[in-house]
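Supplementary Text 2. Reproducibility record for the structural model of the 165-residue chain.

All settings were left at their defaults, and a single model was retained for analysis rather than an ensemble. We include the record here because the model underlies the residue-level annotations in Supplementary Table 4.
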Amino acid sequence: MRHYRIVPFPAGTLTLLEEDGYIVGIRTTGEPPPAAQDRQTPVLARAAAQLDAYFEGSLKTFDLPLRLSGTPFQMAVWNALKTIPYGETRSYGDIARVIGHPKAYRAVGMANHRNPVAIVIPCHRVIGSDGTLTGYGGGLPLKAWLLSQERIHAQEEGGCICLRN
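Retained model, structure tokens:
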């Protein structure tokens, strides 16, 4: 059985989707998914609490049970995204090199676009090789906002946001 919760966040609403005790989706649309029940479960409550802490700047790494469904290539990309530190960015080419497919930067972009758990797997931290913001399923304004929030919180802690190409 799939359950969902629509939760507010500072830039809009998110739809959290849980199945059998695992987070299987986080959508930036804030719309109910088909064939799911609106119900608060312990996993959805935990996800909402961690997202709140992330938006407040007190959480840098998520610890949620995830069940991802994708191709082996997509899974490799999503695992690489999880290694990008809070407040830092990488280019699509950087991720392609990390997963051993240095010329597959466009395919990395497509895998990024198919990331089922936006924010938790930080696809917003991937930028163009020239440092520009490119593509984001939630829209470029949301991507810019997320990176800006990380920059603000990293600076508050005496860190920096590092752009690496």
